[in-house]
Design a protein that fits this description.
By secondary structure, the protein is α/β, with parallel strands linked by helices. The chain has 2 domains: 1-199, Metallo-beta-lactamase, Chain A; 286-342, no CATH class. The protein has helices at 72-85, 100-103, 119-126, 133-155, 159-179, 246-256, 276-297, 302-308, 315-318, 327-338, and strands spanning 7-9, 24-26, 30-36, 39-44, 54-58, 63-66, 90-94, 114-118, 189-191, 194-199, 202-207, 219-222, 227-231, 263-266. A 9-stranded mixed beta sheet has the order 1-2-3-4-5-6-7-8-9. Strands 10-11-12-13-14 form a 5-stranded mixed beta sheet, with no helix packed on it.
Length: 342
């Protein structure tokens, strides 16, 4: 395993939301934010496309991680980064949900691995995941990104600009190549409602609170530390809704708030301690669903509703400043209401 540099950074540079953390450990590819004794919030530092956050939980004899990043290359980089803080083996991967950016790096952790996910997640990762529509859209998006950078590089005549674009192009080509190595791993242990791992001096609760970002989101709750990793069920802002259940999402987050938590660690973005953010996101989902359904009942198409729904009253709380909503979110609401999606 290649050697990684290790640098301890003062807690003062952490986002205010994570001010309780003692330090950040920097590796070649990650910032490992210390959020409790033996618990690290793993965030990519931009040198490699990791896309999502992960949680690293050390036990007496082994390590549990929650989410494995977007590709085997990103998963391998996470494994190398974990080796900076502990020499204990990774024995368990928990899937917060089935999406490619959180679950497609699992193969990097080897074959002798316990992979735990909700039964919905197991079904989705067992049923031709490389042809999942959300994943296929991502392939198109990254191919388009490469083509765009290539076009800008071809048009650039400034040496400094060309150097920057060449670096950017190398970054995105590496990610596209890494996607071609993906062989998704389905959970070999499934959860329906709740599972608790008692081992190695650590209690880890896996809780299904209801449908939200997907049909199988798990909250990974550490009760002694009063923290929860939420995947994309709860970010510090509205999440991608193309596979979501917007009508039910607010109630699911209401059950999240019943946990004794002081720190929320999301699948993207910074952790936060201001739990009012959950209230703000609940209100957004409620208003989005109500507004879209009102337009649907007035006879507007999904495309028209996506352009017309007005959520700008959430500007102060969530920064929503433009009229309209994501087309995939609105189409999902229409499809669920019409019974053509599950």
């Amino acid at each position: 395993m290649r050697m990684l540099s290790c640098l301890i950074v003062a807690a003062a540079i952490l986002p205010a939301a994570l001010s309780q953390a003692q330090e950040i450990i920097e590796t070649d590819t990650h910032n490992l934010q210390v959020v409790a004794d033996g618990v690290w919030f793993a965030v990519g530092n931009g040198t490699l496309y990791t896309m999502s956050n992960a949680l690293v939980i050390e036990r007496d004899e082994d390590v549990v991680i929650v989410d494995s990043h977007v590709t085997p290359a990103a998963g391998a980089a996470l494994l190398d980064s974990i080796a900076v803080v502990t020499d204990k083996p990774v024995t368990t991967v928990i899937n917060s949900h089935f999406h490619y950016d959180h679950a497609y790096g699992t193969q990097a952790f080897g074959d002798d691995l316990q992979v735990i996910g909700h039964e919905y997640t197991r079904a989705r990762l067992s049923d031709d995941p490389l042809n999942d529509p959300t994943y296929l859209r991502s392939l198109d998006r990254f191919d388009n990104t490469v083509a765009d950078v290539e076009a800008r590089l071809a048009a650039a005549d400034d040496a400094e600009a060309r150097a920057g674009l060449e670096t950017e192009l190398s970054f995105w080509r590496a990610h596209v190549n890494a996607q071609q190595e993906t062989d998704p791993v389905a959970p070999n242990v499934s959860v329906s409602d709740r599972m608790t791992l008692y081992r190695g001096g650590r209690e880890i609760q896996l809780i299904w609170l209801g449908r939200a970002h997907t049909g199988g989101d798990l909250a990974v709750y550490l009760p002694a530390e009063k923290m929860v990793f939420t995947g994309d069920m709860m970010l510090g802002r509205p999440s991608y809704m193309g596979d979501g259940y917007v009508e039910e999402w607010s109630a699911t987050l209401g059950r999240l708030k019943e946990l004794d938590i002081e720190l929320v660690l999301p699948g993207h973005g910074d952790g936060f301690t201001d739990l009012r953010i959950i209230d703000y996101v609940q209100a957004y989902y409620n208003d989005l669903h109500a507004g879209v359904m009102r337009l649907k009942n007035q006879g507007y198409s999904a495309e028209e509703a996506a352009a017309r729904v007005d959520l700008r009253h959430h500007q102060d709380s969530l920064g929503i400043s433009e009229l309209g909503a994501d087309m995939l979110a609105v189409q999902r609401i229409y499809d669920l209401d019409d019974g053509v999606a599950e």
